[in-house]
Write a structure and sequence with these properties.
The chain has about 350 residues and is α/β, with parallel strands linked by helices. It folds into 3 domains: about 140 residues, Rossmann fold (3-Layer(aba) Sandwich); about 70 residues, Helicase, Ruva Protein, domain 3 (Orthogonal Bundle), CATH 1.10.8.60; about 130 residues, Zinc Finger, Delta Prime, domain 3 (Up-down Bundle). The chain contains 18 helices and 8 strands. The strands form 2 sheets. Strands 1-6-2-5-4-3 form a 6-stranded parallel β-sheet, sandwiched between helices. The longest helix has 23 residues. The radius of gyration is 25 Å and the shape is globular.
């Protein structure tokens, strides 16, 4: 049975399953999910704990299988934790995990920790055995648009809240900008606010004075912000990536690849292919798929050609080639390229349906 992290607490109240598998790359949420399971296990009498870390190809799986069947000397029930940081147990490990799931004991509760798994790993026999024997908890990242609500919920849990209306929304947006991409630091900032201020309403000035700028930016999220026309966020992300020491060539590759994908999808549609097929051929999926669906029909071919040329010039800047109409600094060139696309995508609006347009005219 598969659950989201926010469904775990309710599932634990209904009773414990013999095995829980946590998979995802958000450390804070994975840690909190594990803590909830450990707390429920202790309350149910699983007082002894053993931890097995699988960090190489020479792990002794027989020791794990033996531990799950051995009677505890100190407690009636035991909790066994299996950590697989690489996410790939290997052939021997795959077979061992399947045998482990086939021989689960009522006196043993098992907690398995895994990183984020791709589709192939989730379809593997060993993961299917883990999921079928108990509960798998998927740890999804908190995206930027959901971050203000996440912060508001965490504040409420510690008896605090922001002001209502636009003032509160501004406070939450400011908080989110400061901690984007770094939930562990966000959690620490929330704890600091709980220590600094009493329960009740928080002002913008209080939050501004206490929250540090601890955001960490993902270069691949930059492309989504550019396509979404989020100018202020794009500038903030570029400055953050530069300060973090990101490689300009990687930032350029991200921007240029999106531009080339837009061009390929546009050309495919012009040849008569359906948009979904064009996006698949351009290797567009995930969060960017919806952005491409909006932009491809609205972008003019000459605009895309201009962007492709600009990306080529920017590539030369990163390699040390000068251009008379572009800045010398590669990061300034990247900012110009990103803004060139962002300001255009921000100005594009989907065509209004005829019915709504007629209603608006009366």
């Amino acid at each position: 049975m598969q659950l989201r992290a926010d469904q775990l607490a309710a599932a634990l109240e209904r009773g414990l399953r013999p095995i829980y598998t946590i998979h995802g790359d958000e450390p804070l949420l994975a840690q909190e999910a594990g803590d909830r399971i450990r707390q429920a296990a202790r309350a149910a009498g699983y007082s002894e704990r053993k931890v097995f870390s699988i960090s190489g190809a020479h792990f002794d799986w027989s020791g794990l299988l033996g531990a799950s069947q051995a009677m505890s000397l100190f407690a009636e029930r035991q909790l066994i934790e299996i950590r697989i940081p690489g996410g790939k147990p290997g052939k021997e490990g795959s077979e061992a995990l399947q045998r482990y799931c086939d021989a689960l004991s009522d006196e043993v509760l098992t907690l398995v920790h895994l990183p984020q798994l791709d589709r192939q790993q989730q379809a593997s026999a060993w993961f299917a055995a883990l999921d079928g024997a108990g509960v798998s908890v998927r740890i999804d990242p908190v995206e930027r648009k959901a971050l203000p609500q996440w912060i508001a919920q965490r504040l409420a849990a510690q008896g605090q809240r922001v002001q209502g209306g636009d003032a509160g929304a501004q406070t939450l947006a400011f908080f989110a900008d400061r901690v984007e991409g770094n939930l562990l630091a966000a959690h620490q900032e929330l704890q600091k606010i709980a220590l600094l201020y009493p329960q009740g309403e928080l002002s913008f000035e209080q939050v501004e004075a206490s929250v540090l700028n601890v955001a960490r930016y993902d270069v691949f999220k930059l492309g989504e912000a550019v396509l979404a026309g989020q100018t202020a966020r794009v500038l903030r992300m570029l400055d953050g990536l530069r300060a973090e020491g990101a490689a300009p060539v990687l930032v350029h590759w991200t921007l240029a690849e999106d531009i080339r994908a837009l061009r390929r999808a546009k050309d495919a549609v012009a040849q008569g292919k359906p948009l979904p097929m064009a996006l698949r051929e351009a290797r567009v999926w995930g969060p960017k798929e919806r952005l491409f669906e909006r932009l491809v029909p609205l972008l003019a071919e000459h605009t895309l050609a201009h962007w492709v040329e600009a990306a080529s010039v920017c590539d030369g800047l990163i390699k040390g080639l000068k251009h008379p109409h572009w800045p010398l600094d590669p990061w300034d060139g990247l900012k110009r390229l990103a803004l060139m696309v962002t300001q255009h995508t921000a100005a594009l609006k989907p065509a209004q349906p005829l019915r709504l347009a007629l209603q608006a005219s009366f």
